[in-house]
Amino acid sequence: MSAEVALGTIVEVAAGRGVVRFSGSTSFMAGKWVGIELYEANGKNDGSVNGVSYFTCKPNYGIFVRASQLKGTFGSENDRPPPTATRPTFGHQRTSSLRANSIRPPSVPASSPRAMSPAKPTASPSPAPPMAASPPKKTVLSMPRKSLQSTSPPGRSAGSPTSRVNGAASSITGPRVSSPLTAPPPRPHSPPSPPQAQPPPPSSFQAVAAPKPPSRPPSSLGAAAATRPPPDDQELQELRAKIRVLEAKRADDARHVRELETRLADAETFVSLRPKLQAKLNSQQTELIATRRELADAQQLAQLAEGRIVDAQEQLEMAMLDKEVAEERAEAAEQEVEELTERLAVVEVELDVLKEGEEGAVGEGEEEEPGNKSMSTGKDSLAYIQLEKQNDRLKEALLRLRDMSQETEQEQRKRIAEMEKDMVGIDDLQSNYETTQIKLANAEIQIEDLKLQLDDALGAEEMLVQLTERNLMLGEKIEEMRITIEDLEALRELNDELEENHVETEKGLMEELESKDKKIREQVLKAQSLEDACSDLEGTIGQFRDLVLQLQTELDSLRAQTQAAQTESQTAATQSAAVMSLNLKLQSSASKNQARAIELELQRMDARENRELLKIVQPYLPQIYVETDSDATQCYLFFQRLAAKADLIINVVSQNNGLPDSLSGSVSSALVGVCDMRGRISALSTLCKRFAAVMRRCDVESFLNIGRLYQEIAPMEKRLDMHVNLLRRDEFRDEECVSDINKIMLTFDHLAETYFNGFDHDLGERELGYLTAFDLDLDLFAASIAMSKTSITGLVQDDETVLELGGYNIDTELLEPLQRLLDQYKGAKALSRKLTKRLHDLIQDSAVLKAHLVPQMKGLSNFVSELVNFGISFAQQIMPHLSEVRSSKAPFQLTTILGFVKQIASSTVAKDIKPGASPWEAIGESITQLVQEGTKLLPLTLEAENVIKVIGVSPWVTRVDEVKASLAVNLEAERRVTQLNEELQGLMRTLKQKDQHIQEATVKNDLMERKMETVKKQADAITEKDIIIADNKRRQRELEEALEQVQGDLDVSEQERLKLKTMVGTEQKQATGTVVPEPENVPVEGSLETSHLLEQIDALRGTVRYLRTENSYLKGQDLLREIEALPTLPESISRMPTPALEPSTLSDSDDDSDSEDRPRSPPTLRSLATETKILYRDVIKFSSSPRVVDLTALNAKRAQANGGRVWLPKKSTPAHQVWERKMEAERLSRRVRGLLDRASVIGDP
User: Fold this and answer.
1) Other CB atoms closer than 10 Å to residue 781's CB: what's the count?
2) Rounded distance between C-alpha atoms, residue 822 and residue 825, angstroms
3) In angstroms, how far apart are the furthest CA atoms of the chain?
4) Which of 113, 293, 445, 662 is the S-S candidate for 1245 at Cβ 3.0 to 4.6 Å?
């Protein structure tokens, strides 16, 4: 409570309840304090501090607190206090309204994008508002797909699309009568409204569908025709022209119906994308809400921490105040003790005087002489004088003591005041210190960032030219887009004017039609003679419809062929890119293999020379070495050789199976077996390394005793050599290898217990064995879990599988926990790699970790074995159930799988699991505990105090001295023999290593040859597909030419039809009655007919243009889908933005920043289609003709320098060429992402 409290208010504090007696500032401490008189004696004073009284109360009933320490108020002391206290809560409280507001998604408009589409039928037959008839300019620019709407009058969208579509469909598909005048017109659903009441002007489409007055019965019509005189030819020509207009409008209506159906299909495809976008938006909103909640929680925790800090400070101030009060009480008590001491001393002196006076009085008689009285009086006076002197001395001592106490008190008060001042300023100093530390850390981060930016800036000079060219290209594109926008705006204005003129013309035509309805009914008899002409026209229209349908069919087939060709082209481009990348890898590996081959030849030559030297030196060796030491030396080399071959098998098998990277995808049972085999072979390798380490540091006697085993264990190497040869020929058999390894391990375990037990020389190898087993067991655990997940996922996704989930969600209960285990495995795998690498480095430096760390490593190995047992047992338990499900003998039961998980977890990793707890959480906690133990062990391995150097003399060195002493030969020759032996051992080790490298290189060469054969087959397939694509393109061009030819033939047929109609009209005019038409009306009739026919031709041409536009749009859509299906390019390395460079007068890129800062015009479909074509051409060019790294200059320089280091310009180095290739790929990736973003802007509702 931070508000001021009135006097007399009942409050509650930590010491209890009381009444406020004082509120304000005090002299003992800065700030505002509240003085409270408590109901109980739990206070610290009587209302006064340091002699200053602020209020009056009983002793130990008064207390001073801060206003923020008040827990609650209970009214005035005159009122009755409530029974309970309202204590404020400091925790975070979320209200339902806040949660609802934060979870509620943003409001969306009630109408969907499909409802806004012109092809969407509306529920209301009422006309649309005027805004739908005249869209603003921005709508034309942002939605180029609706540009075809400008050809139709705006009033067409105001009517009911449902009725118009149904009417048009019936006019197309229904039976066609000989003449529209022979049958009564259809009855409308609603009475017609006058044209003045409709917001949009009437259109030709509405004129056809508009209801007309009911026609008269045929009998009455015939009677009227019989009584009336025959109409003139002028009215007949007008009626004929109107019939043609109606037919043209009917065809136009059919065309518009097809347009609306096409747009409806487009709208449905667009609406199908909306749920995905809505789901993505909901997920992002959920993440945003969770982040806001976490932020609110963190803020409230920070406020709570600040409040606690303030409370602690206030409690410190109260403690200081209590200390001062206690010091005052102590000083008062000391003064009282001193006064009592002085009084006691005076009383003791008086008592002594009285005792002496009584003793003198008893010793004297009643009758004393005057001389004796004078003596007693003198004694009394002497004692009195002594007492006075003593009293003076005591007074002086008291004065000095008082002065000293006052001085001490003043010094203490000064010190207290200084300490209070220090306490007042220490918070500011602490905050300043923390702020300074934060600023220092930020400054260091900024320095590092500036260093990175400086490095980027130093390497960005060569990119300026490319950026300049790109900016120039962007500027040209922007200018082209601006010109296109201006053209579109001009076209839109022209379209608006045409629409207005068309509306006015349509109004006039409607008035004429209403005035001529009566004349049309009078000319029914004459119209019968025109039925034959109408039937001919209907036949022509039917032929045209058949032609349009045929063209549409061919266009659909062409689209399908184009889509298939584009798909094949995309596949070919992807395969070509993979082939070229593989070619680059092959070239680099070929160069490396060439260098390795040269090195291997040199090493073979050295090994050959060393063998010759060994053959020459062996006869000079003493016979005692051949008899005793030769087998021991061969045994030592045998163990080293066996360990190296085991490691070679592990490395090659891991490389062939892609371990451990392949564990992140789908895993089969064969891969689990490979992981198990690696662990067994690694155990053999570790055991051989331990034997070699023991023989390297043991005594001579043990060395010779172990050497006697060589003849027995030497044949075991042949089995391992056989598997290495099988691996070289790619005929490796896992089961036989595991069987042989188990047999060898049984023999070696017996050797370890018999001959190698009790030695500490293999400490480093034992430590490395524990960590290697830890690393490989992690891979085996991940492989078993991934295999189970892969099997379950494939079975669940099968449509024929019967699922019995038992009310559970399989993703939440099974698949997601398995994926979490695999994610935790990655962290543990990284930790095991670090530990293993650290042990390898220590062993290479002839150092090991101290023995007290071995239990921790052994604990890690044992702990991960429990996880392996869980993974293997889980896979073995569920495989029979999954096999039954696959054979359709039983349904998939999720409860059975979860029961297996709980049962296996309780018997392996989670033996102390609580009832009702999730076994997945227990397993995850086990992995987390494993990672924590490894994290604790890693810093210990890096500390120098836990590392010891391995020192000692090899037994063969000691044995050399003994042999020398026994033979007493020349010391120089003995030294030479020892040196040769050492060189021989080194050469043998080198030879073994070279043999291993040769074997690895041979296996890799075989693999590369197989991959080359596969790549050649893929290249042939790509060539065939390129030929097919070229044929499809040629076929497409032929179809386009055929379409243009058909269009020309259609125009010619239209002209011929116009001529025939003109001829028919002339003949009919000659065959008419006696009435001769006026000469001035003939041009009018011809002009009307010609105008109507021209309108019909324009409608047909508009149909062809629409088909072409739709074809280009579909091509653009196919191209967009093809670009989206392209594989994602690798993410570029995130770097800090390059600092702005100083503009120079020598560069022509000063306007780049201005061009980038200019606002981008809204994308249109035309601009996106153009940019898509350019981007597609660049991607095809990049993927089909990649640059190969040119090594000719480097090889030439090296040949001139005889194999030494050479210098090349930066642009000529292979690394720079690869970097340019990567930069080009990143630029294309950015362009694709930008194109997708702009396309999504158009696609968004």
Assistant:
1) 26
2) 5
3) 203
4) 113
The answer to whether the peptide bond before residue 660 is cis (omega within 30 degrees of 0) is yes
Residues 881 and 893 sit within 8 Å (Cβ to Cβ): yes
Place of tokens 């529209």: 180
- Which token pair is 796? 């669940």
Distance of CA 582 to the CA centre of its chain: 29
User: Does residue 75 contact residue 8 with C-beta atoms inside 8 Å?
Assistant: no
- Cβ neighbours, 10 Å, residue 1097: 17
Q: What is the torsional sign of CA 861, 863, 866, 870?
A: negative
Inter-residue contact 197 to 206 (CB < 8 Å) = no
pLDDT, one tens digit per residue, over 309-364 is 888 888 888 888 888 888 888 888 888 888 888 778 777 777 877 777 677 665 55
Are the beta carbons of 777 and 873 closer than 8 angstroms? no
pLDDT band at 131 (very low <50, low <70, confident <90, very high): very low
> Is residue 52 within 8 Å of residue 28, measured between CB atoms?
yes
Helices (H) and strands (E) in the chain, counts: 32, 11
- Whether the CB-CB separation of 742 and 720 falls below 8 Å is answered with no
User: Given the DSSP bridges, would you call strands 62-65 and 947-949 parallel, antiparallel or unpaired?
Assistant: unpaired
What are the pLDDT digits (tens) for 1172-1194? 888 888 887 777 665 566 777 77
Helix or strand run (H / E) with residue 847: strand 847-849
Tokens 């009215």 identify what position? Answer: 235
Using DSSP, state whether 248 is helix, strand or coil.
helix
Q: What is the mean pLDDT of residues 580-587?
A: 74
658 backbone φψ class: left, alpha, beta (φ>0; ψ -120 to 50): left
- Classify strands 847-849 and 52-53 as parallel, antiparallel or unpaired: unpaired
How much is the pLDDT for 1090? 65
Residue 17: beta bridge partners?
A: 12
Q: Cα separation of 67 and 78, whole Å?
A: 22
- Find where tokens 């930016």 sit: 453
Q: How far apart are the first and last CA of the chain?
A: 52
User: What one-letter code names the amino acid at 769?
Assistant: G
Residue count of the chain: 1245
What's the rounded Cα separation, in Å, for the pair 528 and 1152? 75
What pTM was estimated for this model as a whole?
A: 0.38
For residue 325, give both structure tokens: 């009060």
What is the C-alpha separation between 180 and 517, in angstroms, rounded?
13
Pull the structure tokens for residue 347: 């009383």
Whether pLDDT at 287 is above 90? no
Would you call 905 helix, strand, or coil by DSSP? Answer: helix
Question: In 39-105, at which residue ranges do the beta strands (DSSP E only) sit?
Answer: 48-49, 52-53, 62-65, 72-76
| Whole-number Å distance between alpha carbons of 1045 and 1035 | 15
Q: List the 32-38 sheet strands across, edge first.
A: 62-65, 32-38, 16-25, 9-13, 72-76
**Cβ(103)–Cβ(35) below 8 Å:** no
- What phi-psi label fits residue 1195: left (phi over 0), alpha (psi between -120 and 50 degrees) or beta? alpha
Q: How many beta carbons lie within 10 A of that of residue 485, not counting itself?
A: 15
